[in-house]
Amino acid sequence: MTVRTRFAPSPTGFIHLGNIRSALYPWAFARASQGTFILRIEDTDLERSTQAAVDVIIEGMKWLGLDHDEGPFYQMQRMDRYKAVLADMQAQGLVYPCYMSVEELDALRERQMANKEKPRYDGTWRPEPGKVLPPVPEGIKPVLRFKNPQGGSVVWEDKVKGRVEFSNDELDDLVIARPDGTPTYNFCVVVDDIDMAITHVIRGDDHVNNTPRQINIFRALGKEPPVYAHLPTVLNEQGEKMSKRNGAKPVTQYRDEGYLPDAMVNYLARLGWSHGDDEIFSREQFLQWFNLDHLGSSAGRFDEAKLRWVNAQHLKAMDNTELATLAAEQLTRRGIASDDRLSALCGLYKDRCDTTVALADWLAPHYADVAPKAEDLAQHVTEAVRPAIAALAERLVNVNWDKASIAAALKETLAQFSLKMPQLAMPVRVLVMGTPQTPSLDAVLELHDREKILERLRKA
């Protein structure tokens, strides 16, 4: 069997980390199984669906490297197909028109709740042998309801939850077409999954209650349902379901904040799946290890501090030339042009950074003006040390511009003024980099422009 998975988001807002994890696992399973990953846009909610939301979904997936093999398919472009299947089902007696008005349904639900019964459609318009249906009311367009099986149960072996069972008597006859003839979500999903030959449905567990209804529609259409894996919810840091209302950020915002796509994939993978105690792994390792048997059954909790740590590990391990490309993008956003020193600079500073934004903070003083804090100047650039700073500046005018020669100039200046390294290095760092804490000073100065250094030291 060729594995075929899908990600089927609704474009009703931006896509956040909880959503994108439901794309990551089916993508990973398809890749790990040499299968096919399909992108399907479920855009039947015309009031809330927007092209801008579609664009953000595709942009976020592209950034994370979750490439799809087929699609995107749009449900609104498949309406003729859905209506043809509906017509076939009507001809086979699998669906029936229901003329119960919204007001009648509301009154029915109120009576059921008053009697402490589960609110559900009572089958008034369901045709049965020997049953006399009410007279068809004038001027009312009916909905179409699916004749759900009566008696027995719907059972499936979920790859996350294990055996799941729903009694058919708990499932009322689902509306699968509205009065204007447009089909509803649960019906469209089944037709899509059949037409696209989906073998595995990996999605959030908020869909569990839809699954028995969908399984019954599959079987009514003569098809066996796919394998299901219902993923536990992703919670935010407060322990609430991650959502736009609860402060979740668009996936693309993490890109802008300097996170690496491979680090995001690593972190998201661990929010509901594990490979022993491995915390940090490459995309290639993830795909080599991934299967559905190690999906977790408890909710994953987002932790931005942990994400930053994971990102820092990936940033440290990243090739300096590749990292320089991302750093250049961050500098460009600040209006700063870089040069061929950038790769070496990334190598010098990346161990101190957890995002490419933090890296760009370190790189900026090598290309743009610095404005040291007044308190740092007052603490470190004192009258006592100014003669030593001036002497160092004069020595740096003519030395070879390499780490060893700069280190020698520093040592000569320390000896001349009987200073210890921090007494000279910290004021020089403040003047040149705007901060008293940097990597080894000779390494920092070597990758700086000589004239800029002299200019900044002479301002002391």
Automatic annotation (TrEMBL):
<feature type="short sequence motif" description="'KMSKS' region">
    <location>
        <begin position="241"/>
        <end position="245"/>
    </location>
</feature>
<comment type="subunit">
    <text>Monomer.</text>
</comment>
<keyword id="KW-0648">Protein biosynthesis</keyword>
<protein>
    <recommendedName>
        <fullName>Glutamate--tRNA ligase</fullName>
        <ecNumber>6.1.1.17</ecNumber>
    </recommendedName>
</protein>
<feature type="domain" description="Aminoacyl-tRNA synthetase class I anticodon-binding">
    <location>
        <begin position="324"/>
        <end position="460"/>
    </location>
</feature>
<feature type="binding site">
    <location>
        <position position="244"/>
    </location>
    <ligand>
        <name>ATP</name>
    </ligand>
</feature>
<keyword id="KW-0436">Ligase</keyword>
<dbReference type="InterPro" id="IPR000924">
    <property type="entry name" value="Glu/Gln-tRNA-synth"/>
</dbReference>
<dbReference type="InterPro" id="IPR045462">
    <property type="entry name" value="aa-tRNA-synth_I_cd-bd"/>
</dbReference>
<feature type="domain" description="Glutamyl/glutaminyl-tRNA synthetase class Ib catalytic">
    <location>
        <begin position="3"/>
        <end position="309"/>
    </location>
</feature>
<keyword id="KW-0067">ATP-binding</keyword>
<dbReference type="InterPro" id="IPR014729">
    <property type="entry name" value="Rossmann-like_a/b/a_fold"/>
</dbReference>
<keyword id="KW-0963">Cytoplasm</keyword>
<dbReference type="Pfam" id="PF00749">
    <property type="entry name" value="tRNA-synt_1c"/>
</dbReference>
<dbReference type="InterPro" id="IPR049940">
    <property type="entry name" value="GluQ/Sye"/>
</dbReference>
<dbReference type="GO" id="GO:0016874">
    <property type="term" value="F:ligase activity"/>
</dbReference>
<keyword id="KW-0547">Nucleotide-binding</keyword>
<dbReference type="Pfam" id="PF19269">
    <property type="entry name" value="Anticodon_2"/>
</dbReference>
<dbReference type="InterPro" id="IPR020751">
    <property type="entry name" value="aa-tRNA-synth_I_codon-bd_sub2"/>
</dbReference>
<dbReference type="InterPro" id="IPR001412">
    <property type="entry name" value="aa-tRNA-synth_I_CS"/>
</dbReference>
<dbReference type="InterPro" id="IPR020058">
    <property type="entry name" value="Glu/Gln-tRNA-synth_Ib_cat-dom"/>
</dbReference>
<dbReference type="InterPro" id="IPR033910">
    <property type="entry name" value="GluRS_core"/>
</dbReference>
<comment type="similarity">
    <text>Belongs to the class-I aminoacyl-tRNA synthetase family. Glutamate--tRNA ligase type 1 subfamily.</text>
</comment>
<keyword id="KW-0030">Aminoacyl-tRNA synthetase</keyword>
<dbReference type="InterPro" id="IPR004527">
    <property type="entry name" value="Glu-tRNA-ligase_bac/mito"/>
</dbReference>
<feature type="short sequence motif" description="'HIGH' region">
    <location>
        <begin position="9"/>
        <end position="19"/>
    </location>
</feature>
<dbReference type="InterPro" id="IPR008925">
    <property type="entry name" value="aa_tRNA-synth_I_cd-bd_sf"/>
</dbReference>
<comment type="function">
    <text>Catalyzes the attachment of glutamate to tRNA(Glu) in a two-step reaction: glutamate is first activated by ATP to form Glu-AMP and then transferred to the acceptor end of tRNA(Glu).</text>
</comment>
